Amino acid sequence: MSALSAASSPDRSAVAETAGAAARARARASRRLLVNALRIAFAVVVLAAWEIGTAIDPAHPDGLLIDPFNYGRPSAIARQLWTWLTDGTAQGPLWLQVATTLEEAFLGFLIGVVLGVIFGVALGRVRLLSDVFAPYIKALNAMPRVVLGSIFIITIGYGIWSKVALAVVLVFFVVFFNAFQGVREVDRVLIANARILGASERQLSTNVILPSALSWILASLHTSFGFALVIATAQATFNPSGVFAAMFILAIVAVTAEFVLTWLENRLIRWRPNAITDVHI
Question: Is the pTM of this model over 0.90?
Answer without folding.
Answer: no
